[in-house]
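Journal club prep, shared notes

We agreed each person brings one worked example of a sequence with its structure written out as tokens. Mine is Sulfatase. I'm keeping it raw so we can talk through how to read the token line rather than staring at a rendered picture. Sequence first:
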Amino acid sequence: MSDPSQPSIGRRGVLAGAAAVAAAAAVPAVGVGRAVADTGAGTRPNILLIVTDDQPKHTEWALQKTVGWIADQGVRFTHGHVTTPLCAPSRSSVFSGRYAHNHGVRNNGSSRGLDQHTTVQRYLRQAGYRTGLFGKYLNSWALADSPPHFEEWALLQPGYVDSTYNVNGTVQTINGYSTTVIKNRTLKFLDKAATDTRPWFAYVAPYASHGPRTPEAAYAGTAVPEWNGRPSVPEADRSDKPGYVKNATGTLADGKRIRAEQLRTLRSVDDAVQAFKDRLQALGQLENTLVIYIGDNGFGWADHGWTAKSVPYSPAHEVPFYLSWPAGGLGAGVNDNRLVANIDIAPTILDAAGITPDTPQDGHSLLGPYSRDHLLVEWWKQGSAVGGPPTWSSYVAKDRQYTEYYDLTTDAAGAVSGSGQVKFREYYDLAGDPYQLTNRLYQATPADEAALGVSALAAALAADRTA
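Then the structure, token by token:
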């Protein structure tokens, strides 16, 4: 009798029809059909998961080699999101395929709340994968503690130059630029595939483009394309916004500076990704490696005066999101306009590896036809200090967004307290107002709310928050 505590290993073939995918590149993708063959474990793909830090959309200029490989020869998800725009909750969603209200890591201080039994690295290692972690793991994770279910690791204490790492249990300082150190450690891990026939999973997480956004010496002062803001930068009239946005002070000059600094740090990430591609090609493993690239959250370039993350506006939760798997039929280049998120990464990886999870997941495999009509995005305020965004949750669709702010806070362990009373609401017509300039609920009448369908949206949001 099988042990129910062990993941179920399916005998899964690879996706078919690369030519059909390429032919569909000009139209919105709604999933890729699959042809299943009884090919056995020998065809299980390697998994390369790259997660950058604080990287918003519209940063592709710095990633031309990355985009040319993973997106232009794979899949570019045009509506990629994170479900909590904050580092540790988002990364926990990447690992578990679950919303933060289900995995419990509601802030950067509560990383220990993640049930490691639910993580993709647990499933893969138990299924016979060689597992490695290189770079940033989870905020508030003690550096001296080994990351569970990884066979090898070089865990970074966030920093850019001459940083401290936990390398397979030994805490040490490694001189050099951290993105380069992470690149070289990852390459050594890949090289072992020449003699170790197990499929592998590499989680690669450079610190770029997180503040202080220190560039590698080669890219310090590199000229970046001119940018003169967008209508939301900095948005002169914020009278319809919540108090913390009304008080935001970010300027166009701030946005330009942050953007330029982010782009310079990402140039080194682009070099690292190219090195991974070259090494996989040399090892003969390029075709059957599933590569996923995503930012853990976005970042404001003074949109609505905000120069950070943690807010319900698009720049904070929209992220670059690419996937490539040539042997799985995903190597020809396609734009997929489904509404997708970080919670879909773990289900996608497990689907590709033929593993059926034995714990719940909120996301869905991107290898199949599933397409959602909206997404829950949520964030919690930690502590009771005055200022900053209150706790909020948001119903995000392609054409509209409805947000509620609550009287709720969390403590350092992620425990929630407060009345839960709705304190402020926003509704944006994303089709006609993509920069979220006009809050349609500001001074709205009951008739206005009925026309917008607010009652149904509020009910759907309440259901999502407890599902």
